[in-house]
Amino acid sequence: MTTLTRPLEPSGQQETRPGLRPPRYRRPMGIGRDTAVHYAVLAVLALFVLAPIVPTLIQSIRSVPLYESGGVFTLDGYKHLFTDAGFGRVVWNTLLFASLTTFLSLVIAIPMAVVVVRTKLPGGRLIALAMQWPFFISSLILGFGWIIMYGPAGFVSTQVREAFGGVPWNLYSIPGMAVTEAVALAPVAYVFCANALRQSDASLESAAQVCGAGPLRIIVQVIIPMLRPPMVYSSILVFSMSIETLSVPLLYGQPVHIDVFSTFLYRNGLQSVNPDYAVLGAASVIILCVTAGLVAVQAKLLKNAARFVSVRGKATRPRPLDLGRLKWISVAAIVCYVVFGALIPILGLVFRSFTLIFTPLRNPFDFLTTKNYQTITAYDSYVQSIWNSVIVAGFGAVAVSVLAMFAVMVSRRSTFRHARAIEYLALIPQSIPGIIVGIGFFWAFSYAPFGLASLLPGTLTAVIIAFGLRAVPSAFGSVAPATMQIGTELDNAARVVGADWVMTFFRVLRTLVTPAFMGAVILTFVIMLKEYAPAVFLSSADNNVLGTTMLGLWAQGRTGSVAALASIQIAITATFVALAGLLMRGKHHA
After folding, report:
1. pTM of the predicted model, to two decimals?
2. Quick one: pLDDT band at residue 313, thresholds 50, 70, 90?
3. Pairs from 272-279 (Cβ < 8 Å, separation ≥ 24)
4. Which CATH homologous superfamily contains domain 33-55+370-590?
């Protein structure tokens, strides 16, 4: 056998093909551009996350506000908090409210995820979509709707009182607060559990069926135990979100003097004539420690989650279980949750925006009007709040998604030695309550160097930064799973031909992660559009967003204007999600 070989060129005269010439990159001061990008992402995330935390820690042990000179370091804020401020009752109310909310959310979400994903359910696809859409409605708007329909003078409450002589519920109580918040947060737990069920192998269920187990026994002894990781994760997430929420406790608790963490900070910070910043800082630090501790507990509990893994190389297609007559009970329960929990309050809120008076004692159709919307358009500040919300959500969604995409790429697709730190920094904001983000950035901007203290406070830029911090974990979590599905051989092939990390990203990975990036933009837009808590401390009279404007109008008793603004926010969200769904049709990785 003869092997044909090309003779070698003399030394120094080898032919180099232009198409195969490895790229050369400048290295100013010996630093490659990939290293520069990695450290830039780390620095931006560190500054982003530590900016509200560090001033909060300092303020908690300082006797005067950060923006004032002088003062001494002291623990008087903590002493006053636990002795004179009635903080013990606040702690008890918060724990009771968060625990009850978490329990009710799981009671709603887990059975519904099981019956929707693993059983034969009439209209299962439509029911699955209906279970998720309350996520797009902020708890603030849902709280307005519940008060209008189920409050003491609500439309439904008045009819029930006329028919039965009384109302068996009381919204202005901790159970009433918990039920409303659970309706708003149940879709979060549902999504985690449903996704876990869709990705898991059904071989264990098939084995149980072969052994003669019935549908209910399979659900109780096989399916639900396999849901322990998403149950733990979603329960701690819902508990943390319940601790930080401001809307429902403010709307329901303030009229009857029920304080939780968030309303305590709101009352002693924004509503106080002479705020005690040391007490605010101390309370904020305690909440930070509690939420950070919950995240640590979550990590500890999920450390051995591998023993619950059922997604293997050879997965069997699940055969839906037949519940018989119980499937109609399941359908009825889901319909009750969607209709009574979300649909009726939202429709009542929208209908209230078109009426002068909304009560069953008078025919509402006799008072139909567009005056509420005319009032909104007549005041520039109300119109500006709508535009502000859209601008903040639009610019913020793109900026946060870009930052999250780079954070995912550096933490998951690079050899950067601080990659794990970048991932931690991207996920830490999920343990920082929104109202503390607002307080922390308020102090940080007031103490900012280089003249920023006079430029950032009271601007949309400040609101975008605060809202963006709250949305970073969601954007990171939206992009990360897609990158994990891309094989590393693509990166290796690019490196073989001389591409560095930056070239590999822009030439190879960028196109593959674009659908996930667009999904992160959509998710972040919705989150930032319905966000409002940080803006309570950061926005000015000229830079309010929809949430802060609605809270101000509600305090003035202008229910019709609140309903009109809420309806506009719902319409913006629905339009954006619908258009995004059309644009992303067929892109399943998003």
Report:
1. 0.80
2. very low
3. 276/77, 276/80, 277/59, 277/62, 277/64, 277/65, 277/66, 278/59, 278/60, 278/61, 278/62, 278/63, 278/74, 278/76, 278/77, 278/80, 279/77, 279/80, 279/81, 279/85
4. MetI-like (1.10.3720.10)
